[in-house]
Amino acid sequence: MHNPDPSKIFAVGLGFMGSKVLLSAIELELFTVLGGGARTALQLGERLSLHPRSIADFLDVLVSQGFLSREGDGATALYANSADADLFLDKNKPSYIGGIFEMANHRLYGFWGELTEGLKTGRPQNEIQTGGDLFAELYADENRLEEFLHAMAGAQMGNFIAFAEKFDFGRYNTFCDIGGAGGALAVQVALRNPHLRCETFDLPAVKPLAERFVGAMGVSDRVDVTAGDFFEGPLPSADVVTMGNVLHDWDESQKQTLISKAYDAVRPGGAFVAIEMVIDDERRTNTMGMLMSLNMLIETEGGFDYTGAQFDTWARAAGFSRTEIVPLTGPTSAAIAYKD
Length: 340
Ligand SMILES: C[S@@+](CC[C@H](N)C(=O)[O-])C[C@H]1O[C@@H](n2cnc3c(N)ncnc32)[C@H](O)[C@@H]1O
Prior knowledge:
Blueprint: H1 7-13, H2 15-27, H3 30-35, E1 39-40, H4 41-47, H5 55-64, E2 68-71, E3 78-81, H6 83-89, H7 99-111, H8 115-121, H9 134-139, H10 142-166, E4 174-178, H11 184-192, E5 197-202, H12 207-216, E6 223-227, E7 238-244, H13 252-265, E8 266-276, H14 287-299, H15 308-318, E9 322-327, E10 333-338
Parallel strand pairs: 4-5, 4-7, 5-6, 7-8
Antiparallel strand pairs: 1-3, 2-3, 8-10, 9-10
The structure holds S-adenosylmethionine.
């Protein structure tokens, strides 16, 4: 029997409220402040310049969401980070993934306000609403370039570590990540596979930042940072060629072009791997993957996320002999295409 209950409608319909509290907490660096130890409500109010009217509600929402703990009540209530908030949202820790949420707060939150317009027009609702190239636009400004690269690294770090640990690199000698942004994937693969020669390839504007990161991680001797345009000329060749969140930026014919170029770049017996929120073939369960596809509507001219079955069709058309989907973390998988 159907028991009428609107709670799910409320949870989803007003979900933006809870989302914005977390995004503002990250913007205000609340979890970074608490990374230095527990603080009272009074201390946090002063440190974050909060109006007295907002302090208890703001902090206690975060307690109820599981991101903070609280002992006591009122102005002397003592707040601390939860274990996950402390690990992932304290800027002073190398495990910080807040970059993606800083960008979500600063760019996507506003752009998603225009979703209905995007649904009706099929047009992006961001900086390239009236035309232009997304990456040229993002990279024209040094701060935006850095924010974007931190966002990418934060979004994919768990997947990159899972992939570097799960994928058997034992029989391969060379690895190249195409559209590798700051070099996060090549670094994780290099750290776990000392025998591999690695490369991270992206647009020229990204190169200095990637070189700095690869150097800071102590793997410059095994990770080459190279620059170019993946639509111009052949891709660097390697036994294993990856693209993380690259295919979803582009329309179907551009996806096919990139997969065909990857086929040419992969050495015989090697593999091409796309690391993305691969949607379930039935398109019923991977909500985040389908939301990410709508995010590509907001952000790009023709991009969309895709199912494993679509990846298989494109990969076989490019010449790969078989594919498999290996789940990584949350909604993200490695879509692997093997070359005979
Ligand atoms: C959505 S980001 C993904 C970054 C990273 N691979 C990840 O998984 O987080 C797409 C990347 O493709 C790069 N890119 C875009 N157009 C490119 C082009 N024409 N040639 C080379 N790289 C390009 C961007 O600079 C950016 O780093």
